[in-house]
Amino acid sequence: MLKLFKYILIILSVFKSITLSNEVYYKDRIIFYVDNRVSNFKIENDHKTVSINDLNNILKNENVLKIEQWLPMSRPTDQNGQIYLNRYYVIKFNDTKTNIDEIIQKVFSVDQITSCEKMAIVRPAFIPNDELWDELYGLPQVKAHLAYDLWDIEGGELPGQMDEGEIVVAVPDIGLMWDHPDIIDNIWQNLEEDIDGDGRVIELINNHWVFDPDDINGIDDDEDGYVDNFVGFDPAFNDNDPYPVNSYHQHGTKVAGNVSASTNNGIGLASVGYSVKIMGVNANGNPDEPWYLTHTSQAVLVAAQMGADIINCSWVGGFSQAQYNLFQTVYNEYGCITLGAAGNGQSNGGPSDTTDFDPRYPAAYDNVISVTAMGPNNSFNCWANVHETVDLSAPGEAIICSMPYDIFNPEMYAIGNGTSYATPLTAGAIALVKSVIPDATNETIISKIIETTDDYPDMIKSCSDQSIEGLVGSGQLNIYRAILATREPELLVTDMEFQTTDGIIHPGDTVVIDFNISNSPAFLDAENVTVELINTDTSITTISGSINYDDYFSAGYQTEGQLIIAIVDNALLGNVYGEILIEANCEGESYSNNIPFNIPLNFNQYGYPINDINIRLTPTVTDLDGNSLDEIYFSSENLMYGTWVAGFEVNGFPFTANSQISTVSAVGDINGNGDLELVFGTSGGTLYALTSSGTEYLVYEQPDSIKSSPVLADFNSDGILEIVFISVNSNMSTLFVIDGEGQNLNGFPLNISERIISGPSVADLDNDMALDIVLTSRQNNVSVINSNGSFREGFPYETSGSLENAASIVDINNDQNLEILVGDLNGNLYVINKDGSLITNSSIGGSISSGISVADLDGDGEFEVLFSTYLGDQIESIMMHAYNPISQSEIFGWPIYLDALSYSEPIISDLDNDMDLEVMITTLSGKNYIFHHDGSRYNNFPFIVEGDSILVSSSLGDLDNDGDYEIIFGTINSLQVIDFQEQKGNKFSWNTYRANNYRNGYINLDFVELGEGNNIINSNFKLFQNYPNPFNPTTKIKYYIPKNKLVKIDIYDLKGINIKSLINRYEKKGNHYVQWDGRNNHGEIVSAGMYVYVIQHAGFTAAKKMILLK
């Protein structure tokens, strides 16, 4: 079957080469498809070889530059039938290949390759061959290249040419070098003065263009009042030649080239006007002054009298009633469309000047189109003038222009800046429109230009502290839309709204799509309009999918529409896609327009997401102010934000730090007053502790950057938390342990001659009632620091690769001792004893990119570690693991392939109260995955944030106290809060970044894995450490009893006084837990300090200590 499929592809390729013989293909690259049966294909680290040896043998002598995936961001579900886009790869060579077809056949012969072919060079249908095209940014910016495609240029149609007649743009200015090589082919020739009837009034004689000698007779043959006016006239010197009096009279020639330089002639410039004609009229009678015009009004009238259709006035002056009357006459009596430059700043200085907000004339007169100037990249750079009389904007900055030249000044082109060049570009566009609809009224032609412009961002900016909104006209010239407006309607669907019962679109919802449908202003009328829903995503089913309109859609007409769809239950969260097809009739021709749309399918919590904010650190969820409602604390740049229900800001936030916030926040009571503080560090070396109102409780400064989350822990057993953090510079790190007043504990700070960018982990490793600090470094070392600041004997433990993430501390093997878990960039997973000896070392493969989380996913009483890995830049190698380091094996259903790299810690909890744990992980491709304990994907996930990236772990909270979780995470562009909408369970594990809000990386798994029906089989009586510990205000005590017997648990203070009898009852064998809320037998809240809890069962007694914080 594989060979048959290959033969079919050969036939299709041959057919394509016959029917598309005009395509051009690359000769230095080919594309191939890896057969679907190949499961382990990869590109090797050299990027020149792959895992298929037969292919490597073919390519070894072909000078391969690199091999890469064709579409790196393609999804596993992006497919056409059984063809998956992520299985296409490109081979690029260092040189062009004359035997490219032979190479293709050889690659195609490899059994694991299903297809191989050339790669087509993709380009617009028509790009002019003018030498300077690539430097003429203004033409693509006004969509001229797209407009050209509306003519069959290769078939002989030329923009601007007409079956009969021609469109003429007059340039009354400082002369016109009409024989310039880029102008001569488009110069207007007054054939009514063609006395000899040879069809021309200029001739090339001895390599010089001159007036046709046989046409010169000194008579006004066309009776327009001007004798022998062959290409224009010079009213300043009252002769028939508008040629500049010297090469310094440049402006008119520069302007003319921007109207209609000969396009696609193989040299120099191109223009919007393309082939419309230019009439020269000299308006300067002073040979010694190239920058002032002496005869502008005369020149305008001469142009009108000689029959110009459009008159371009790239000059400015003050108001004159006489001149006003002239322009009204030219418009109303002669039918000329006139344009004026808005001006070049307060001193007419161009880009070095400052925008003036006063009008300039003739641009501001009635019936004159006023044009202001923009710069590259759709910018307005606050030098061109603006005013309410401005009609539109066009490129006029750094414009390449045609130049008068001679033997002394041989340059044919020069750079020009000014509205002088934005205006002729627009004049050429008007001429092009008029060439398509020559019989239309001037009002109609002008509307095609002004009402089809594009908005641009700078239209609403301020210049000199004054807004230009409403002062730059309707927008930027778009000649493509202007030409389309002469040929067809433009029917659009706008203001689309998606209505559901609760305003949020969920899987399974019925969605009413309300919209407006309109015909854009200036476009042709349409009738028999239909709207139909087509090409919908597989997540959409159509209920009511079409509308027939009886309305007549004239230009600017708008009405309403409604379609109804349903979202399937198993749709992935993110955007689902559809398309609306609009069909109509226009002047006997069929018209259609396809309008794509996307529906935001999500469980977003009301008030979220918060957009346009860059979040690169995991948000913290806590009830900082003690009002029984969780808040979210997250940072961007140097701001710490706080939000809560409905996205409202927490009072006192955002807080502004003195430099960029560089760590995740820790939360705890660092001063013993019973209130929580928010603790975080900055790149500038400042450690902050904020109160619930956003005020500074502690500001601790030191010189080096703090790159990892601080940890809160009670080092001196006084019931009050201390702060542990690390600062780092290019050579060394410093470990701090300070109290809530900013005082260093004995033994600290401690200088360490290694770079440590991961956070500390804190726990009592050896059960001596003193906390220990575990550090991991880029120099491959795991170190343990005792509570007095000394290094633990037996450490450091040296790994084979760099350690980028903090250690995790757990009793992984149920031996009642804590172990240290770390993973390195060489793909090794280590379990290290408290004395520095190795318990296990597993080679996972690839690099361990994320932090390590721990859980008993499959409920067998043994704990798995969860983390992600990657191998080079191969997407196929990115995995998430659930690995048992004791048995050194993955559990069933794992590992799982991910679509992109993940640097986040997996977050683990029972999200839906099914007594099984779910696992959350985020990727750089903007996806938030949820997996069941067996590795299967949770329905509707991953949640996809289109075009975004997620660098952080998710957090869990219940913002609205409705009994279900909100999943909170940040992206490069937003804060996302998903309302999970399933009753949350009581079973959890590593359910936040670094296991808890103390960020200590330690978790008592015997406690957190406890859930109803999840009895860990054990024949020994056990009392486990309470969790959390220290705690405020509640903690849970877990125990295991091997027999069905009476159980008694009591709590004593350090004086031995019984302050609380927790339970005294008969219980069945198995795992159990009980909660203490910090109250005594009389219901009173006890004071902070250390307490002992004691269990008695079947002759056994056990006791453990715990600390209550305030």
Roughly how many Å is the radius of gyration?
39 Å
Average pLDDT, rounded to a whole number, is 89
Distance between the termini: 73 Å
Q: What form results from the Cα inertia axes?
A: elongated
Which residues form runs of ≥5 with pLDDT under 50? 1-23, 122-126, 1006-1019
Order of strands, widest sheet: 10-11-7-12-13-14-15
- Please describe the biggest sheet, giving its number of strands, its sense, and whether it closes into a barrel: 7 strands, parallel
- How many runs of DSSP E, i.e. beta strands? 68
Strand residues, percent: 25-35%
Helix content class: 10-25%
Backbone structural class? mainly beta
Number of helices: 12
Layout of secondary structure:
Blueprint: H1 2-19, E1 25-34, H2 53-59, E2 64-69, E3 79-80, E4 83-84, E5 88-93, H3 100-108, E6 113-120, H4 138-141, H5 144-148, E7 168-173, E8 202-205, E9 208-211, E10 232-233, H6 251-260, E11 277-282, H7 296-305, E12 310-313, H8 321-332, E13 337-341, E14 368-374, E15 392-395, E16 399-402, E17 413-416, H9 419-436, H10 442-450, E18 462-463, E19 466-467, H11 479-484, E20 491-499, E21 510-519, E22 527-534, E23 540-544, E24 546-548, E25 558-567, E26 574-586, E27 589-601, E28 610-611, E29 620-622, E30 631-636, E31 639-643, E32 655-656, E33 666-668, E34 677-681, E35 686-690, E36 696-701, E37 711-713, E38 722-728, E39 733-738, E40 750-752, E41 761-763, E42 772-776, E43 781-785, E44 797-798, E45 808-810, E46 819-823, E47 828-832, E48 838-843, E49 847-848, E50 853-855, E51 864-870, E52 879-884, E53 889-890, E54 896-897, E55 907-909, E56 918-922, E57 927-931, E58 943-944, E59 955-957, E60 964-970, E61 974-983, H12 1005-1008, E62 1022-1023, E63 1035-1041, E64 1045-1053, E65 1058-1067, E66 1070-1076, E67 1089-1097, E68 1100-1108
Parallel strand pairs: 7-11, 7-12, 10-11, 12-13, 13-14, 14-15
Antiparallel strand pairs: 1-5, 1-6, 2-5, 3-4, 8-9, 16-17, 18-19, 20-21, 21-25, 22-24, 22-26, 23-25, 26-27, 28-61, 29-30, 30-31, 31-32, 33-34, 34-35, 35-36, 37-38, 38-39, 39-40, 41-42, 42-43, 43-44, 45-46, 46-47, 47-48, 49-51, 50-51, 51-52, 52-53, 52-54, 55-56, 56-57, 57-58, 59-60, 60-61, 62-63, ...
